[in-house]
Amino acid sequence: PSITRGVTVEIPKVSWDDIGGLNDLKKKLKQAVEWPLKHSDAFTRLGVSPMRGILLHGPPGCSKTTLAKAAAHAAQASFFSLSGAELFSMYVGEGEALLRNTFRRARLVAPSIIFFDEADVIAAKRGTGSSGSTTVGERLLSTLLTEMDGLEEAKGILVLAATNRPHAIDAALMRPGRFDLVLYVPPPDVEARHEILRVHTRGMKIDPDVDLGQLAEETENFTGAELEGLCREAGIVALRENITATIIHNHHFQTVKISLKPALTKKEIDSYA
Ligand code: ATP
After folding, report:
1. Is the separation of the CB atoms in 69 and 44 below 8 Å?
2. Is 37's C-beta closer than 6 angstroms to any atom of ligand 1?
3. What gap in Å lies between CA 110 and CA 134, rounded to an integer?
4. Nearest to 228 by CA among 249, 252, 197, 258
5. What's the rounded Cα separation, in Å, for the pair 201 and 225?
6. Residue from 15, 16, 64, 66 whose mutation best tests the ligand 1 pocket (most atoms within 8 A of CB)
7. Whose alpha carbon is nearest atom 29 of ligand 1?
8. Phi, psi at residue 167, to the nearest 5°?
9. CA of residue 269 to ligand 1 center, whole Å
10. Beta-carbon count within 10 A of 21 CB
11. Per DSSP, what are the bridge partners of residue 181?
12. Position with higher pLDDT, 88 vs 238
């Protein structure tokens, strides 16, 4: 991917099959993304305005970013990725310029998806600042609103945003024609954990004695990111035991599982809903 001052651009390689679980969500997202990007003419024909923005929210490490990338891959769209925190930390005016520039570039190479990670940082509720002057966040938000409203004319551009704090997002962004669709990305249940473990061991040499189903049952409250880490770590344990190892056994997975604790409790995870 190419990187210009805080934005990365690429057509991502990750596909829907690389994401375990979330089947209904994937279906919804697929339609919401592919229709406006691939069939914008059909929308015009019927006089229906296509979706412009989708907000993904949920606990950290549960595939919001990966879903956005898979959506871009499926639509063969250029994927512009911006971090809310990074935009926020730029010099006065620089963040706004970067936003405008990103939308302009996205129009040039459409179909495009513009993805905002940590969207709450730049789309925080207005009027929460202490002084009367406009804050960095307010200026970024108003630029974003202007650009999103301008998408009416632009075909094949969709804005996706991810946040762990949906309640912190300014209501102005939630109006129709802006973030038309809000999707909750939940933590994985036991079946999803099983699938995630399958996805992340697909390329690994694992012994048939490795019981991924059992492992899924024993990893309650683990996020997708943590399960991915567990698989990688099991490989490292096998190598540490024997650098010439040719296969990873169940006891390697067990050793890692026992040493790991999920970062978030059930209560914390639920608080993201
Ligand atoms: P954050 O809120 O911290 O940005 P996120 O929800 O955007 O997190 P991702 O960055 O998409 O999460 O996922 C982190 C890692 O965990 C990725 O490398 C991804 O492969 C893995 N992962 C998370 N959920 C799943 C899943 N359902 N299937 C496969 N891998 C997953």
Report:
1. no
2. no
3. 33
4. 197
5. 13
6. 66
7. 19
8. -75, -15
9. 14
10. 22
11. 54
12. 238
Reported residue count of the chain is 273
Ligand 1 contacts CB of residue 201 (under 6 A): no
Q: Is the ipTM of this complex over 0.90?
A: yes
Tens digit of pLDDT for each residue in 112-147? 999 999 888 887 776 655 555 567 788 888 899 899
The rounded distance, in Å, linking the Cα atoms of 259 and 40 is 50
The CA-based angle 51-63-200, given to 5 degrees, is 135
DSSP string, 173-225: GGSTTSEEEEEE-PPP-HHHHHHHHHHHHTTS-B-TT--HHHHHHT-TT--HH
Q: What is the pTM of this model?
A: 0.91
What letter represents residue 158's amino acid? Answer: L
- C-alpha 256/C-alpha 270 separation (Å) is 25
Distance (Å) of CA 141 to CA 53, 76, 115: 14, 28, 15
Angle between helices 190-201 and 224-241 (to 10 degrees): 50
Residue-wise burial string across 134-171, b where 16 or more C-beta atoms lie within 10 A, e elsewhere = ebbbbbbbebbbebbeebeebbbbbbbbbbbebeebbe
Mind listing the pLDDT tens digit for each residue in 243-265? 999 999 999 999 999 998 888 88
CA of residue 229 to ligand 1 center, whole Å: 11
